[in-house]
Structure formats: structure tokens, C-alpha cells
Design goal:
six-stranded parallel β-sheet, 20% strand, 427 residues, alpha/beta, five-stranded antiparallel β-sheet
Length: 427
Amino acid sequence: MLDRIPEYAECFADPGRWAIATIVEVSGSVPRPAGTSMAVRDDGRTIGSVSGGCVEGAVVDAAVSCLDSGATELHSFGYADDDGLSIGLMCGGDVRVLVQPLRAFGGVDARAHLVRDLPLHDTTAGALLTAEGLGIAQRPDPLCAAFDGDELPAEVARAAGHAADRIRAALRSGGAHVVDVTDRSTPECPVVRRLLVESTATSARLIIYGANDFSAALAQAAAALGRRVTVCDARPVFATRDRHPGAHEVVLAHPAEHLAQEIAAGRIDARTAIVVLTHDPRFDLPVLDAVLRRDVAYVGAMGSRVTHEKRVQELRAGGLTAAHLERLHSPIGLDLGARTPAEVAISILAELILVESAARAGSGSGSATVASAISPVRLRDTAGDVHDSRRTARRPAPRDRTPAGRSCAAVPAHAAATAITEDAAWM
């Protein structure tokens, strides 16, 4: 819900007429993630969407009903489930939606974190041993706390009890999570409270070292994907805001010095992607040597295969191991046949998404591992749920490729593809 607070301004101006529907849990193939919300007015008007249309009508009805009753409700929607729900998700997944009158939110505004009580069960519950199942009544004063910072407000800490550390972990990871609080005083350890924990995580960073036409296109495309983009170059002619309108910041500095400052400040983490576009070993090598030793999301470097091999030799001589070098994506990008800066930007970002998807699926981030775990093929050539990164590829039979005119935004060096000549590369 937090990401839509600005859109809900008119709702908060007249809270008695509005309810908020929020996806709290998902499984299988679903169109929207947990935390997605929609505002519903008493006359059926909506702001936002929770399913792309599959169960929207039922959610609107439930929200209007909760406005009449004043009750907070939890509804489950699935596809061809055993309970015979008449309305479900056509994509085959399952989703639980919390509907709550907006007046129950109190003074919620644009804060970083939101913790709310959930009903202990919905119409499809039964397998989970809950407090209600043991005759424990639902509390009359449901929690709804919005706050900033790392410290839990006293009311949240009291509600979480021994689950406070799990609340903090959920806040750090961002998104929406359900945390169960159990009663450890009895052998059954019933669930006595369920808390919906929402947090707006800071945007993942993309740092581009090297300012040119490709960096400008990459910054523009990455920003559109919600990345926080930094472009850094030591050349004042190229490292300008005018050349990079899509970047959040443009830094005039030696790339290695800038990287060292970012590391020292703690601004390089496991969600950071580094792309090197300078084509100058004086700048490339120190940056690559540093980032390949760290836990970052992605490291890519532009250049031909000849350039890549020279880099690898230098980096290996500097002490990097085969495991370190396996994390380097070079030549950079997926084999999309990209040529223009805009096309190359899409190729690079597609590879970044591929690497992150493999990491989320537990496949690691090494080049060979990514290639074997998730192949950059068309969705029509895959099996499994469309929204599940664990789906498998039905690979077509290999076909011969001709190297002439191939872009260096091509198959990573590990792939079994025809080598690109120096003449066909960007230098």
C-alpha cells in the first residue's frame, strides 16, 4: 500500500467512503505481488488494481461490504480449488486479499514502514492451528502503525513480542510479509496474532562507469525500471547532466576513486549492479578488480572478446580467482542482435534481469550457472507458471550462427557461440 499513498490523497480527505484492498499473500502464478493495493469507494469507484481484472469485481464487492459492516476481512481467491470458489485467478495461482475501511488506518501518511493486524483466518482457513480455533477472541483494537527509521515503535514491539526480530528482518528486506506471532506458553504454540509488515525498500542501484552514448541510453532505460542510476567518468566533456538526462546523478571523478568512496560509505551492496563502459584498462581494471571481490548483483563490461581476454589475463595476474572471474559478464548483454545504443541498453538490462532472476531462484549468479538455470528464450518456449522464475526452458535445437556483423552486446563469453572479431566490436 505504501507506494500508492500519494495516489490515495483524495481517499484520506474523505476516509468514511473508502476501503483499501491489499494483497497479503500469494502462491503460484499470480499477476501482482504481495503489497499491491487498490482503493475502493462506496459507489464502486476504484484507484489501482490487485489482479489485472481476474478477481477485481469480487474484491470491489468485498470492500464495499466491509464499508457497510466496518469489519476488516481476509478473502482468498484461487483457481479450481477444492472449496469451489466461483471467482478465481485465470492464471492458476492463489491470492489472499485484506479489505479494510480506510477510517481504520488513522493518520497513516507517506512513511517508510506500515504494520497492520490481519484477521487470524479467512473462509478457506482450517489447517492452521490458530487462537480463534482455540476459542481466543480477536482483539478489538487492531494495530495499524506507520513509522520511519529502524526502531520499532513501542506498540509494534509489544504486538510482535518474540517475533520482533522477524519484523525487523521483514522491514529490511522491503515489500510485504506476513509474520505470525505464536503463544509459546502452550505446547501447541497457537498463532495468536498475524501482522502484515510493509516496507518501501530503497531502489536498487546501477552504477555506470564510462560516459558515452551507450551510458546515456542505459541510464534512461534503467531509470524507467526503477533503478537509481549513477554515471561516473573522469572526462568533463562527457560526464555531464545534459548528456545523461535519465541518470539520478552524474559524477566527475576517477571511476576507481568514486567506487572506493561508495564502498567506504556503505553504498555498495548485494542489490547494486556495476556496468563498465570506458574501454580504457586504466579505468576498467581497478573497478573490476574491486567489485568482482564483493557481493554485488551484477558486474558487466563492454568490449570485444579480444578485449575481454586481455582483461581476464590482467585481472588474473592481479590475484582474482576463477570464481571471481566467472561473475564477470563480458561481452556484456544478451544475444538480441542489438546495435544502437538504445538496443544495447535493453540487451544489458535483460541480462541483469536474467541474473537477478537466477539468484532469486537460488541458482547463483555465475555466468555458467545462469546460462544453465534460466535460458534467455521466448516465454512461448518455456514451461511452468509465467510469473514463476523457476519455470524451465524447452530449448530448441542449436543452430549455426554467422559471426559477420554480430554486436558485442552478445552471448556472454561462456556460451557456445561463434567468436566475435575485433572488427565487429565496439571500440
